[in-house]
């Protein structure tokens, strides 16, 4: 049987006349107005009401001015100098006095200077030529604000930056390379891997200098002290170790974490160490005495990123519970909790010069102000992957690395993504091993080092041959600022 016949045999639900009239304006007019195609005749009474309301709204501020001549108004004000609070004398030049003899009564003349003696007083000048109302009604202010021209927000134009290119691939680890740190003297860097070793490499040539063993699980965090000859490492074996680089051995261990340690940071001015792990706690350690100073507990999930600064907030942590917390190091309590992200905050980067930082999540890369943590804006593109690491240099080049091997470069000031690079897996590796787990700039900020899932370390630098003509800046400012 055809579908049209079946539809016609379906039972029709009875509906009331009121419900039908609400569904369609045409049906309502068919029911109640046979001439719905014609406009209704104009109503003079409603027009009067509309015009009078408009007059009241537009001219309520000057409606109370009397229509008597200005000389009478001036003499009345001189007789009663404090008669009303809404009359002010605005002094004008000498020539204005002669010009005002033939001016209509309802015009206002505002002189070049206004001198008020008090809120409820009236300043009268011998050279005054006009009396005007001082206050404007709230309706007038509202209507003026409604018709003011809105100035469009100007998004900062990004600075042209040269693209980055891969110039060296270093092999040597037997597992995923999970962490990296650069020596403050900028002569070597160290990497930690899932093969449970820490390897130290020459930064200039990329040659292996030393291999350290001591952990029994993969090494997730590394940091090199700029005040002592110490290197700190943390891993999935719940251990945090302090290495003496003069003896190349472990001299201290910090015990307290209940699960794997995922991130690590050294305070820039005080001899303390911060570690965050899978037990949802960021622990603060005294480097020399090995004592735990604070257990910064408040996150509901793994603490996977942490950085420190010399002034408050001295400790900032990001977690898998999608929050960022600022901590008061004196009392070990939370100062501010930022809840702007919707996914895990796996990476954060503090700008070396500005009072701001960026945080990365699978939903967005967001920029925040310090010290209060005001949200500034989202970066203008979405990487659409899990971002494991990010770093920014002094020139304002932000690099973010994802699980799918994408390495994106951003302009810090404007949030513009000026380059999208893709790492290439080494021969013999799977395509799924293109993830980047850690990255950092060297001390000068001119070289970028990435640690990857294909067991290699790649080094990047700016392309010296690039020019604005060969690599043009393609920037489209956003029409609106997304505030979430």
Automatic annotation (TrEMBL):
PROSITE patterns: WD_REPEATS_1 (PS00678), WD_REPEATS_2 (PS50082), WD_REPEATS_REGION (PS50294). Belongs to the WD repeat PRL1/PRL2 family. Keywords: Repeat, WD repeat. It holds the Pfam family WD40. Residues 65-106 are annotated as: Disordered. Transmembrane segments: none annotated. WD repeats lie at residues 170-211, 212-253, 254-295, 296-337. It comes from the Eukaryota. This is Protein pleiotropic regulatory locus 1. It comes from Cinchona calisaya.
